Amino acid sequence: MSKYLVTGGAGYVGSVVAAHLLEAGHQVTVLDDLSTGFREGVPAGAEFVEGRIQEAGKVLDGSFDGVLHFAASSQVGESVADPEKYWRNNVAGSLELISAMRAAGVRTLVFSSTAATYGEPESVPIAETARTAPTNTYGATKLAVDHLITSEAVAHGLAAVSLRYFNVAGAYGAYGERHDPESHLIPLVFQAALGRREHIAVYGDDYPTPDGTCIRDYIHVADLADAHLLALDAAKPGEHLICNLGNGSGFSVHEVIESVKRVTGREIPVVVSGRRAGDPAVLVASAERAHRELGWVPRRPNLDDIVADAWKFTLEKNGR
Ligand SMILES: O=c1ccn([C@@H]2O[C@H](COP(=O)(O)OP(=O)(O)O[C@H]3O[C@H](CO)[C@H](O)[C@H](O)[C@H]3O)[C@@H](O)[C@H]2O)c(=O)[nH]1
């Protein structure tokens, strides 16, 4: 049994990873300021500390075996409108966390990075060797933290793994996706299916893809969680391993809407609107490195299964 600090463990991915750590028999402390997470998202059995990552020094001591760092501001649009918030929360906050880890002698870190570090890809599937040229402040701040972690590994022997997620989806029992306001495709399509929004707006159908809509690599949040536990085992002192996490296959916006129709059996009004600024046409991962270095194999790659788990969570949250 090991003891881990999970920052952002009241949020979507953090809560699912915390639940997996507990199920694997580990001890978990969640540090979350509840700015976007929910108290009830913290899994039963985890210790909860309400606070910012800048306060990690008050929580961390030598009894911790590692940190899994999810706490971040993560809305792409907001990051462009309010960049200082992103540099402060994501970069300055991570710097404080990493300093606190060193002071406490906690030398293992798994960091929640993102496909947004690559920006518009030169080719797909995207490998970790691809050029990193983020097209928004969110991606730029996550990339900056990746660089910070690399230098900390080299200078001070941190054992670190960054996991670059593609489009996280699905749910794990009581833990699922809840953003306010919602901006992600699958939860928005559910809102249309539930009659809580008039329609789903498809952001552009004139992209160079077979049906003209954007293609993304959707990955089940529980598969993502598996990778975090494997990363804790794979982390080596003085090394910073960066791995993409995706299924390696893409689905268009129309294909996602069709999947939601199949899974829910509901009608979904669709309106094609203009492109959303900054959306690349196709983002698909090469996760070869995660397969090779972590021994990770996604167990739930089927889109309808991913959507079905997310739908079950949504129905439970909405009480119907
Ligand atoms: O109402 C909507 C919402 C989304 N989309 C489309 O659906 C696809 C998926 O959009 P999401 O907003 O769900 O996801 P993104 O691919 O934009 O975002 C992902 O990549 C981002 C970086 O590029 C961030 O990392 C983000 O957290 C992550 O979910 C995109 O083509 C988008 O244009 C629509 O057509 N209509």
- The tally of beta strands, per DSSP, is 14
What is the makeup of the main sheet?
A: 7 strands, parallel
Ions, cofactors and other bound molecules: galactose-uridine-5'-diphosphate
The whole-angstrom Rg is 19 Å
| Span of the ends, CA to CA | 39 Å
Helix content: 25-40%
Class from secondary-structure proportions: alpha/beta
Mean model confidence by pLDDT: 97
Q: What coarse outline follows from CA principal-axis ratios?
A: globular
Brief summary of the model shown:
By secondary structure, the protein is of the alpha/beta class. It contains 10 helices and 14 strands. Helix 1 (12-23) packs across helix 7.
Explain what the structure shows.
With about 325 residues, the protein is α/β, with parallel strands linked by helices. Strands 3-2-1-4-5-6-11 form a 7-stranded parallel sheet, sandwiched between helices. The protein has a 3-stranded mixed sheet with strand order 12-9-14. The model has no long low-confidence stretch (mean pLDDT about 95). The radius of gyration is 19 Å and the shape is globular. Helix 5 (about 135-155) links the parallel strand 5 (about 110-115) and strand 6. The protein has helices at about 10-25, 55-60, 75-80, 85-105, 135-155, 185-195, 220-235, 255-265, 290-295, 305-320; strands at about 5, 25-30, 45-50, 65-70, 110-115, 160-165, 165-170, 200-205, 215, 220, 240-245, 250, 270-275, 280-285. It has 10 helices and 14 strands. The structure holds galactose-uridine-5'-diphosphate (GDU). Galactose-uridine-5'-diphosphate binds near residues 167 and 253.
